[in-house]
Amino acid sequence: MTSSTSASSGAALDAAALARYIDHTLLKPEATQADVAALIAEAVELGVYSVCVSPSMLPLTIPVDADLKVAVVCGFPSGKHASAIKAAEAALSVAQGTDEVDMVIDVGAAKAGRFDLVEADISAVRAEIPAPLLLKVIIESAALTDDEIVGVCRAAVNAGADFVKTSTGFHPTGGATVHAVRLMRETVGDALGVKASGGVRSHADALAMIEAGASRLGVSGTKAVLSGAVVEAPANPAAY
Ligand SMILES: O=C[C@H](O)COP(=O)(O)O
């Protein structure tokens, strides 16, 4: 795959460079250890940045010569877990070798304007993830107003997160949008990374998210996105 494309820098972004933006993701409830082994093999083949899996799939077996990180979700997909439970889940994932934790906020707290509670929730998980390990905060942007997106991003900055991330990919309101990514990037500036996830189904989607300010992409249909093909949305998108 040698397709060249432009990104926010305006420089050409070939498939190999685009792959380094990607967390190759498998979060379906029905995923098996065999599915995860296949995910890892494909991740190595494609040269992506990381694999992103559910915590029960840890520990992962990553080839020793592979430049491949491990990311795991936390409080996923609803975010409606007590902070102590999210913190314990993060601590176990760290003990089992994850490099990054993608936690879900309590979206209801954001809808209520209780960004103090959002910050405390993030801080509780942050306390279990020592540097240089990374904490990414899933804000479920499609369920939030612009003001709520700004408030949650500021809470994530205050709590010491490393990234803000648009979506679980499992919420009925939808996934990443260029508008949300741009607003998140404007809010956090260069202080945090911005991960676009949920519904990134094509090469064009990926480039649009990067142009808007994404520094990481969460993608399940990675091979198609990197090949320039279009990944059709699942027939019955997962929702809860
Ligand atoms: O990053 C996590 C998402 O669940 C991936 O979403 P997707 O399956 O729409 O690519």
TrEMBL record:
Localization terms from the record: Cytoplasm
Main location: cytoplasm
UniProt KW keywords: Cytoplasm, Lyase, Schiff base
Residues annotated as catalytic: 102 (proton donor/acceptor), 165 (schiff-base intermediate with acetaldehyde), 195 (proton donor/acceptor)
EC number(s) recorded for this UniProt protein: 4.1.2.4
Pathway note: Carbohydrate degradation; 2-deoxy-D-ribose 1-phosphate degradation; D-glyceraldehyde 3-phosphate and acetaldehyde from 2-deoxy-alpha-D-ribose 1-phosphate: step 2/2
Keyword Cytoplasm in annotation: yes
Cellular-component GO terms for this entry: cytoplasm
MF terms (GO), sorted A to Z: deoxyribose-phosphate aldolase activity
BP GO annotations: 2-deoxyribose 1-phosphate catabolic process; carbohydrate catabolic process; deoxyribonucleotide catabolic process
Reactions mediated catalytically: 2-deoxy-D-ribose 5-phosphate = D-glyceraldehyde 3-phosphate + acetaldehyde
Catalytic EC class: lyase
Family: Belongs to the DeoC/FbaB aldolase family. DeoC type 1 subfamily.
The protein's role, per its UniProt record: Catalyzes a reversible aldol reaction between acetaldehyde and D-glyceraldehyde 3-phosphate to generate 2-deoxy-D-ribose 5-phosphate.
Protein name: Deoxyribose-phosphate aldolase
Species whose genome carries this gene: Cryobacterium arcticum
Lineage: Bacteria, Bacillati, Actinomycetota, Actinomycetes, Micrococcales
